[in-house]
Design brief:
8 helices, seven-stranded parallel beta sheet, Rossmann fold, 7 strands, 45% helix
Length: 249
């Protein structure tokens, strides 16, 4: 991405863990943090993606399947001392409500919600032990607020994530640890382009966005980076919509 010339943060001497860093939004967040001098610890289930990211950013890498609770625990512990955390990893298994399977529901909740709880507990406890007033950003979705066809498990997982964010903000705030979520509209990752490029499906959604465009990965990454900085020192417990005005129309 092209960073505006006046847009600059500095994460020098900060170690930031980014989950789901191999592709899409997570990869853009990891890359942007690197450009702003962070030491990135990138977590993904796909070793090949991490290897290419490491070649670009010299990041530390952890391969883990976050849907496995033991693997999520081990990965968080392996990350070591972390100053900020971005919980970005997520899956979407789209099924009509009447055909939603228990398997798809459980897999979605395991990655999108349970893993956030597990990883965040490990990292937050270590922050507290070290006296670090860190920041945690959970990548949620507009689907937390807006019901979408075929998204029963996904919408429920993201609504749960926003409420988990709020509880974390309440309980961790006393230690100076801020917790916020960001809630993007459709983001034009490779998967997003495939899912929403059809005018029949994407057209009505796009028509409701006053800015008349879907989000790019850098639109999300730049907000995440801001929330990790001291410039956002009084922002805590937010579910911050990045939707181009979708929900005000």
């Amino acid at each position: 991405m092209k960073i505006p010339k006046n847009f600059q943060f500095d994460f020098r001497q900060k170690r930031v863990l980014v989950t789901g860093a191999g592709k899409g939004i997570g990869r853009e967040i990891a890359g942007m943090l690197h450009r702003f001098n962070a030491q990135v610890v990138a977590l993904s289930r796909t070793e090949r993606d991490l290897q290419s990211l490491k070649e670009e950013t010299n990041c530390e890498t952890i391969v883990a399947e976050l849907g496995d609770p033991d693997a999520a625990q081990r990965a968080a512990e392996q990350a070591g001392d972390i100053d900020s955390l971005v919980n970005n990893a997520a899956i979407a298994i789209l099924e009509p409500f009447l055909k939603t399977t228990v398997k798809a529901w459980d897999e979605t909740m395991a990655v999108n919600l349970r893993s956030v709880m597990i990883v965040s507990k490990v990292i937050a406890k270590r922050m507290i032990e070290r006296g670090v007033a860190g920041s945690i950003v959970n990548v949620s979705s507009m689907a937390s607020f807006q019901a979408l066809h075929d998204h029963a498990a996904y919408c429920a997982s993201k609504a749960g994530l926003d409420q988990l964010t709020a509880v974390m903000a309440v309980e961790l705030g006393r230690y100076g640890i801020r917790v916020n979520s960001v809630n993007p509209t459709v983001v034009l990752t490779d998967m997003g382009k495939r899912a929403w490029s059809d005018p029949v499906k994407g057209g009505p959604m796009l028509a409701r966005i006053p800015l008349r465009r879907f989000a790019e990965c850098e639109d999300i990454a730049s907000v995440v980076c801001f929330l990790l900085t001291d410039g956002a020192a009084m922002l805590n417990g937010l579910a911050l919509r990045i939707d181009g005005g979708f929900l005000v129309t």
